[in-house]
Amino acid sequence: MNEISKLSGPPQQPKRLGLFIDGKNEQRDELEFLPRSSPGYGMEVTHVALGTAADVDKAVAAARRVFDRGSWSRMPGAERARILVKAAALIREHAEELAYWETLEAGKPISQSRAEINDGAGHYEYCAGLAQTLHGQTFNTYGDDLFGLVIREPMGVVALINPWNFPFIVLSERLPYILASGNSVVIKPSEMTSYTTLAMASILQEAGLPDGVVNVVTGTGPVVGQALAEHRDVEAISFTGSTRTGEAVLRASTSNFKKTSLELGGKNPQIVFADADLEDAADGVAFGLCFNAGQCCVSGSRLIIEKSAQEEFVSLLSEKLKRVRIGDNFDSASQMGAIVSTQHRDKIESYLTLAQEEGGHVAYGGERLSITEGGRFLRPALLAGITNNMRVAQEEIFGPVLSVMTFEGQDQAVQIANDSPYGLAASIWTKNIDKALGMIRRVRGGRTWINTTIAGGPGQPLGGYRQSGVGREGGLTGVEEYTEVKSIHVGVGKRNHWIS
Ligand code: NDP
Q: What are phi and psi of 37, to 5 degrees?
């Protein structure tokens, strides 16, 4: 990677990014490039190569060649682990540069980007352990003449299609897990946020990953993403993004019955009981709403507050929201950054209008803020007078907009929480342990929290119920998802002949 000398503001010139195929950075003359303007500054920061279906074919062929050669797929787990650990060390060495470009392309505050890069390195370290400990089962129960083994094998070529909201952390929650068992990968990052994915491919190469094991084809979803989803030489696909695109990916993947893992949208409840530590809960709900400017699949976007505590809680929450530091992305004190694109900001704002059309109102925030020239910043918004059947309570807004609703009794809280096409995440706030455990068992969500939100480590799987997805990423499950299971039956001793 090239070192950047000035890491405290937008670059003088946009950086041109090529494709990364078979260990080579491709900057062919005939490639077209798409400019990416920074959400926090409105100026062009990168020019991203628009890959084609032919580039996808080339990348898949490279991934297949190296897989068949076995230089990664059959490498001992301990050696694979050493490369993953080295990659983690290199991520930490280049952390400032990675955080800088993540902030520029995705619009995150620099402190958040730094934390995400650091957490990303942790996933490579965690997967180094799994690369060595992945194992199967034995069956010693068939009698003297038969012995059984179940082994796990890498699948082959895996396609990884990622979104723009967490370019590096979503990559880190998937790539090392897919690599741990020996798969090869072709990645398509979002066309808006490709830098850190390309940088990671170079880091892995520097760490010793054989050429062709990780390839990056940048470009648009309908061209590159679709070609990957349809490709007949790709065995599995990991997709993170909207439920609508997930559906298209699932359909395309039937071309050769790929194993498909989808992490999609959410409309995640924050259920707050009157017996919670209301100050803690207000802080947690504010964080769950404002983290990544609400552009987060597990964002707590529905507040379901016990009626008796509504007034006190909403007042505590409003006070918290007033104090969120929304600011210049390169100010290390900033807590909330910019909205990813003008189009996306318009979409978020259209839901504020819709809330009023549906009979609710904006009780706090929602207005644009002029913080930097060309930056797209929004104040977080509270929607009041909302019932759960309204579109603002059912649809994923993917911005800092919270629908506030009340409940009386646990049954009603569960009913509102589960009345959603989604089932990605949920948080429960109460100091009563019986209530907390009873409720967490009843809410439909793949990633849940008690008295906290959006917290965790690499060991626990992520994924959703219902229209929030299929399959799980992360943890041991995240490695096993990208393995084939083979049963081996071994005849022991002289065969007892069928034809005598
Ligand atoms: P998309 O679902 O459209 O994009 C996610 C990824 O899929 C991107 O890399 C995109 O490429 C790619 N893609 C797009 N079309 C296809 C296709 N036909 N085949 C294969 N891949 C494709 O999300 P958006 O970025 O457009 O965001 C829209 C909404 O999705 C958001 O408002 C939010 O509601 C939700 N979302 C949810 C996320 C989550 O974490 N659950 C993450 C991101 C978005 P490209 O963008 O380069 O065209």
A: -95, 140
